[in-house]
Write a structure and sequence with these properties.
The protein is mainly α and 290 residues long. It folds into 2 domains: 76 residues, no CATH class; 195 residues, MetI-like (MetI-like fold). The chain has 12 helices and no strands. Helix 5 runs antiparallel to helix 6 and helix 5 packs across helix 8. It is globular, with a radius of gyration of 25 Å.
Length: 290
């Protein structure tokens, strides 16, 4: 098989995969139990059948799911039109952009801290293999990696708010809503402590385990033995030759974790009532606002 045929085959398989994922996501929301119109207007609100039917026609819910709704959805996506949120009565793109910055801030801080701490812990754990530090770091990382997101968030929420007096939710205090960012930075930082700590702990273990495994493999290479034979100190060997060669799996994992980080943010933002994309997705799911 030529390189051109190989790339073409991979491209076609990728497009097919994307198409299947789109169909699955489209169908999953449509088969949820309940009436989207009732979910949006409220289950206890009395409204005539004529008005309900009018709303269904307005949003295209009166048409068959296949092919009418599906084709209409694909057509909107192809033109960059994400439609209108039923519950918020605003364009979806506008709603997403209003929450994107908050989520990027949370994800960015969580990933930066987890990468730095995970790499350092993994580096020293591999260097001090089979020591108390290595065993302790390995145990902590395995526990952190296996801990459910929502459970860790609830524990940190209870502990942080009780013992440290940290805010239990939101991005800023109610009295600071709408104020310029530079005037509320201390308040914003306090609200970010618990959700950022939750995300850091969740991903720190993964980076630590990968870095430990990678540095152990690197330290057994011939060029490391050569560096030691030249008289370089352990620190020089570790930082100059070990770290940069052991970082490749970490870089790969950072790219792969982007999607998982967004899904993890849904649980974190829900637990901490953080006004970002994750909280928006959770609210849309409850209200069947697809």
């Amino acid at each position: 098989m030529s390189r051109r045929d190989y790339l073409l085959r991979k491209l076609l398989l990728s497009l097919l995969t994307i198409f299947v994922v789109v169909i699955i996501n489209f169908v999953l929301f449509r088969i949820l139990p309940g009436d989207p119109v009732r979910a949006v207007i409220g289950r206890n609100v009395k409204i005539s059948a004529e008005v309900q039917q009018s709303l269904r026609e307005q949003f295209g819910l009166d048409k068959p799911i296949f092919p009418d709704q599906f084709v209409a959805t694909l057509g909107q996506w192809a033109t960059g039109n994400l439609g209108v949120s039923w519950s918020l009565r605003r364009p979806v793109s506008e709603v997403l952009m209003s929450k994107l910055g908050n989520t990027l801030l949370l994800i960015g801080l969580g990933q930066v801290f987890s990468i730095i701490l995970g790499v350092l812990l993994g580096l020293f754990a591999g260097w001090k293999r089979k020591t108390t530090f290595d065993v302790s770091a390995l145990t902590f990382s395995l526990i952190a990696w296996a801990t459910p997101t929502f459970w860790l968030g609830i524990i940190l929420l209870a502990a942080g708010s009780t013992w440290l007096g940290l805010p239990t939710g939101g991005i800023v205090s109610p009295q600071n809503v709408g104020k310029p960012l530079y005037t509320v930075l201390p308040d914003l930082a306090r609200h970010l402590v618990l959700p950022t700590l939750t995300m850091t702990i969740l991903y720190l273990g993964e980076y630590m385990l990968i870095m430990r495994s990678s540095i152990l493999e690197v330290l057994s290479e011939d060029y490391i033995l050569t560096a030691r034979a030249k008289g370089l100190s352990q620190w020089q060997v570790l930082w100059r030759h070990g770290l940069k060669n052991a970082m490749l799996p970490i870089v790969t994992m950072i790219a792969l974790n982007l999607g998982f980080t967004v899904s993890g943010a849904i649980y974190i933002e829900t637990v901490f009532s953080y006004d970002g994309l994750g909280k928006l997705f959770q609210t849309a799911l409850v209200k069947q606002d697809y």
